[in-house]
Amino acid sequence: MTIVLGFSAPRPLRGLGAAGLALILAGCSGRQSALDPAGHEARVVGDLFWWMLIASVVIWALVMAFSFYASHRRGEPWSSRAAARVILICGAILPTLLLAILLVFGLRLMPMLRAPGEELRIAVEGQQFWWRVTYELPDGTRVSSANEVRLPRGRRTEFVLTAQDVIHSFWVPPLAGKMDLIPGMTNRLVLEPERTGRFRGACAEFCGASHALMALDIEVMEPDAFEAWLQSRRTPPAPPRTEDGAALFLANGCGACHTVAGTEAAGRVGPDLTLLSERPSIAAGILPNNTDNLVSFIRNTRDIKPGARMPSFAMLSPEQAASIAHWLLTPRSGTAGTRRADATP
Amino acid sequence: MTLRLTWRRIGIALAALVLGGLLFGWSGLFYVGATGGHWGVTNWFLHWVMQNSVRTYSLLVEEPPDLRDRALLARGAGHYATGCAPCHAAPGEPQNPVVSQSLPAPPDFSRRIDEWDSKEFFRIVQHGVRYSGMPAWPEPGRQDEVWSMVALLEALPSLSPEEYRRLAYGQEAAEFPAGGSAALARLSDPAAPVLADCARCHNRDGLGRDGDAFPIIAGQSETYLVETLRAFAEGRRHSGMMQPPAARAGDEALQAIARHYAAQPRAAAAAAPADAALIEQGERIAREGVVAQQVPACLSCHGDEALRRNLAFPRLDGQHAGYLQRQLEAWQSGVRGGGPRQELMRTVADRLTADQVKAVSAWFAAQGTRQEAASRP
């Protein structure tokens, strides 16, 4: 017989309990879990967590055993001298010692986690409810993107975190702990991913109606593939070909807020939409990236994302919105297709 | 004889009163005709209640703008001629005998006008008067329009018939016979063609009159004008002054009007002198937006290039600064409404500060003058 969650459930419920447990544990691995680390800091902090967990369980068991012994097994009363000694050792000296060990262990980690990054810097600016991403190359070139961050494996990349409207918090649990984005302040965070793959980050500080709809995609690539990708982004890609969508995009004022590199659209208010086709999701990590989702997001923006700064373009017909979406999602220039294949581990 | 009051007897008496009242109403004996008027005491009581209510509720009214502004007077008069004069008459135009027989009869302003202060006038014009036939303003939220009507009402006793006719009909006075406002038909079906109705305020050349009283519509995109007139006619754009003429014109006439005004040459408004720093700030907003406030550049929709791409956006160059400013303020307070794209402008206007509204309005106004000056031979 199996024991589920420490109690014996009636037979029909057992399967359910096991399934529930499996579901809960499934949350511990995957794209957005600190318990399935894929970065240096997350691993170190994860190790610390496990050591602390094990130690706490051992201490808890000892305390329980000792109190059981004291109340049930030991027949005679404690002399005040013996009691004072127990309190002194177990209540003061031992905890101080354990906490000191923990403190030294923790402090020893901190400089390691605070070590500066290498050449590449990525500026991330939090906005209601999306992320402005700018790769700042050592030679001063800037490559802009939004809601998606690509990182080279094994390198220490420095993030420069700012916010424009309210406080946000940048958290990619598999890679590292979180760091707040505070208006008027610049915070720094270094990420050192250790394995390639796709991960999910999220805003971890309540920032408004659509706080829960403010996520971002992280893709960790092999350093060579990353370098090739970044180099290709230094020059604006050839504009997508479907002209109808381009004309509609500009005619309806979309370019006032959005940039699509290589076209006349150069707005800096909203997310950069250059090479939107290469991002796994749209609307800051909340919808899978495909034409249907993009059409409904364009026409029902504020229904899908309450409080979004972009107005709903309900005056566009579904056909017009589809034309714009199709244009934005058309893969651009020759290298766009092969890059994807390189990036996939 | 003593009558003992008990709960039971009180209840029976009340029930008898209610039943008696219902019986009286059902019998049809109550006289609802307007002839003969009210009893003196009824008349006194109704007026007493109404005057008290206006006085008390006028405490909520905010401070008026400068009511001696000529533009307010012109706007008020343009609407008064079609919206108010059919019942209340006008200087030099006697009251229609038909309306003088209603109960209560609308006061005849060609003879005298009651003593109300500005805020009380505002309250009456904005909300109307229950049980009297006095309607509320079609868009009570458009306080600027209500104030211009108050400005006219305060000036009315001192206006000569000629002055009134000029303010109400502009260059179209010949199309509207003197005394014509007594024709009730004007409320629904203008005696003169639609264009003459529009031209009373906007002139046939679309440049308006009396300073910045009316927006410049000459040379505006036809697509935008049609969408705007339809929005007025259907109540999607809010204005107590523009909704009635747009609604009574009919769609075919609206299209013709849009065609007419789109074809007029756009001439510069006589721009009020604005301070150079203000205009410079306005230019920056118009060209670059204010990224920190998430304000996109105005010209990305209202610039020459953008207007070539999409005729549904209005051109703003050479428009009166005051008009632009009032529109932006109306966007911000949520009363403007508009055509199918109203959501876009509302979103953007909300993000501008009062200073920025002033600056960008001044720049667009000055921009037109410069262009005009440059293109003039």
TrEMBL record, chain B:
InterPro entries: Cyt_c-like_dom, Cyt_c-like_dom_sf, Cytochrome_c_Oxidase_Subunit. It comes from the Bacteria. Residues 71-157, 175-265, 277-368 form the Cytochrome c domain. The keyword Acyltransferase does not apply. Keywords: Electron transport, Heme, Iron, Membrane, Metal-binding, Transmembrane, Transmembrane helix, Transport. Pfam families: Cytochrome_CBB3 (PF13442). This is C-type cytochrome. It comes from Teichococcus vastitatis.
